[in-house]
Each structure stands twice: as C-alpha cells, then as structure tokens.
Design goal:
By secondary structure, the chain is of the alpha/beta class. The chain is built from 10 helices and 9 strands.
C-alpha cells in the first residue's frame, strides 16, 4: 500500500486511542478469563498468540474454553478452530461437555441418564446458535488455512474475530517450500512466520498451540520458559504473546486428592506486562476456570 505520512497514521491511531480512553472502543477480543483479559486488554487484531505446554496438560481444553467463552458472550465473537489432531466430533464433544458441565467420559461412553441427556440436549441447542466454525483436516498447510479464511470472509455477513490452530508442529509444509527441504527448525520457523502474516494481513488474532521440548521435564521446578518452545526460537520471535500452562503431572499418592491447581504463565507480552494467572483444571468437563487469587508478575 506504499508509504503513508505520519499525519494519516496519526488521524486513525489517535481516534482509536481516544475512544479507548473514553471507554467507547474495544481494546481487543476478550476470551472470558477476567485476569487474562485485563493483562492483555484482550487479544489484539493482528497478534500471534502462542499457547504452549507439554502433552496432556490441557492446551486444547483451554483454547476451546477461550473460543466458547468469546462466542458465548456479549461480543458474539466469530471463531474458527483448526484441529489437526482431533476429529470434529471430538472437538464438539469437548465443547458440549464444557457447555453442559457434564463429565466428558460419560458423554463419550454414553453412560448417562435422562437428566444428563436433557442437559446435553439443552447445551447442544445453545451451541448450534454460536458463530463457531470447525475444520479437522489433518494434513493442512498455512496456505490452505489462509485460503479457507479468505473464502469464509468473502461470504456475505461473515467475519472472523479469532482463529485457533491446534497445533503448530502438525502443520504440513508444501513440498516446494524451503522448510520442507531443510531441517525441522527451519520448517517450523517458516510456518510460524506465515501465521504471523495471516494475523497481521487479516487483522485477526491468531492463537497457535505449540508443544514444548523435554527439557522442561528435567527442570526441578518444572516451570516452562521461552527456550523450551519446541523446534525453533522463531516461534518466540514471531509471537506477540507467549503463554504457558504449568501444573503438576505427578500422580497423587494413595488417599491424596489430585492437585488440579495450574498456572497460566504469560512469558512474553510485546505490548504489556508478563504475569502469572492461577487456574483450576476441571478435567472431567475439559474446562479451566480462574482461581480467586491475585496475579503475580514473573
């Protein structure tokens, strides 16, 4: 679009800033976790948000919680969820369990009574009214995701306020790409950059889930850090926000209750503070909730 004089940029930027100051403008997409929303001022248009953790810690559950809460709020946010690991039926089952507050294992096994069935049907009727879109294509490239987003946005009365991809290391690379011909770090760096461009070019916050390497398991505290992002430091470089999920994975001793406390660690925040948000994991509902505790800085 060429060079723009600072005066043109100032006119648009100052109007938005004054609207925020006077409470008229939204500062970003709120995902229904009050402390996280306060720290980030909502996920900003054009931002790349990386949510990372070791396998089994609930990355997908938290991302779907964000999607559901954003859509099922006054914002009525339109969200797209690209699942490379789970089928669309599994994604819907998680949304259903979280929405209905029904044990997910019971839902999947069919071991529930008429009361639970009524709750599931009521939740299903509410879910189908929400502007949530799902794709479960396993072998997919960023180029194909971008094409799907473009097609969706080209339809009348359609928009997207949030894109979530689960997860980065499963994204395919076109055979002719530079990353496909070199090592995994180069390939992931290429994908990471492409997601940042998708967010920036479309003005939509893009949340990408990512695995962590095994180094975190050998650390005494078990707390992840930016160097643990798997395969490439480019993920850290491209991301506007990097968030880790941290909780104890050791099984409890006999007779002891399971420790479900967790921490949401905002390890990088390009335009704001880093922080730790205490969470509680309700595994049976595939759901996280915030704990009533103050936020601490990292």
């Amino acid at each position: 679009k060429g060079l723009e004089h600072v005066g043109v940029v100032a006119e648009e930027s100052m109007e938005a800033l004054l609207d925020r100051l006077e409470g008229r403008g939204s500062t970003g997409l709120r995902v229904g976790f009050s402390r996280l929303d306060a720290i980030t001022q909502g996920f900003q248009p054009g931002n790349l948000i990386v949510l990372a953790a070791r396998p089994g810690l609930g990355k997908t559950a938290l991302a779907l919680n964000w999607l559901l809460r954003a859509a099922d709020s006054a914002q009525r946010a339109h969200g797209a969820f690209f699942s490379l690991e789970m089928s669309r039926e599994e994604v819907f089952t998680r949304l259903l369990a979280a929405k209905a507050s029904v044990n997910m294992k019971a839902v999947m096994s069919g071991a529930y009574d008429e009361v639970v069935q009524a709750k599931l049907l009521a939740a299903r009727n509410e879910l189908v009214q929400l502007p949530i879109f799902i794709n479960d294509q396993a072998a997919i490239t960023v180029r194909e995701i971008t094409a799907m987003v473009d097609r969706h946005l080209s339809q009348a009365n359609q928009r997207l306020d949030l894109i979530i991809v689960d997860y980065l290391q499963l994204i395919s690379s076109p055979p002719e790409s530079r990353g496909a011909k070199q090592n995994e770090a180069v390939r992931v760096a290429e994908i990471s950059r492409a997601f940042k461009l998708l967010a920036k070019d479309h003005g939509i916050p893009v949340v990408v889930l990512s695995q962590l390497n095994r180094e975190v398991e050998h650390r005494q505290s078990g707390q992840p850090q930016l160097s643990d992002l798997r395969d490439s430091g480019a993920i850290e470089q491209d991301a506007d926000i990097v968030i880790f999920i941290h909780r104890k994975m050791k099984p409890p001793l006999e007779g002891e209750p399971e420790d479900r406390n967790a921490q949401l660690i905002i390890a990088k925040h390009r335009n704001g503070p880093t922080a730790i948000v205490p969470l509680y994991f309700e595994a049976e509902y595939a759901r996280y909730r915030e704990l009533e505790r103050a936020t601490d800085e990292v």
